[in-house]
Amino acid sequence: RVLFRSWRSYNGGDYHTGIDIARTSGSPVYATANGTVAALTIKYSCGGNMIFIHHNVGGKYYTSVYMHLQSINVAKGTTVTKNTVIGYSGGGSSTPWDRCTTGPHLHFTLLSGLVGTDYRAWSSTFYSRLLNPRSYVNFPALGKSFSDRITAY
User: Fold this and answer.
1) Using CA atoms, how far apart are residues 45 and 117, in angstroms rounded to an integer?
2) Quick check: helix, strand or coil at residue 81?
3) Residue 98 to residues 37, 49, 60, 80, Cα–Cα distance (Å)
4) SS3 state of residue 127
């Protein structure tokens, strides 16, 4: 497990707890794996619309978090697959209530265990459970773009 949290100076400074994926506003966002929507946060002042999804992959539990969404397509308790459009990306002028975004993108966080069941969001345990998404999810190399959702990068 790789602790994935780094300091950034934007907006007075804070810890960045995931990766940012450039997306135009209104682009579909898919669940990273099969799971159940555990929680939604609507129009939070730092992170905007957020979705928390619980996953069981190979007998291990994970939570994926999707932030800066323009809109959400799922409800708490919804069962999702990797082909479910859970929402649409936002950021920038498309999410004026979200003061922690500099432009259109998706912020993606991955944690071990189940947020909201094993521990609370934004608690010290939350930060200690952060994983490097690149070690668990199929992403292109840094600086490269997605060509599709199926290619192994």
Assistant:
1) 24
2) coil
3) 22, 8, 32, 26
4) helix
**107: which 2 tokens?**
């912020």
d(CA 128, CA 125): 5
Between CA 122 and CA 138 the distance in angstroms is: 26
Least confident of 2-16, 38-52, 90-104, 122-136: 2-16
How confident is the prediction for the chain on average, in pLDDT?
Answer: 86
If one counts every other C-beta atom within 10 angstroms of the C-beta of residue 140, the result is: 12
Tokens representing residue 64 in the block: 């994926």
Run of H or E residues at 128 = helix 124-128
3-state SS assignment for residue 74: coil
Q: Quote the pTM value.
A: 0.87
Residues 6+ apart with CB under 8 A from 68: 47, 48, 49, 89, 90, 91, 95, 98, 100, 101, 105, 106, 107
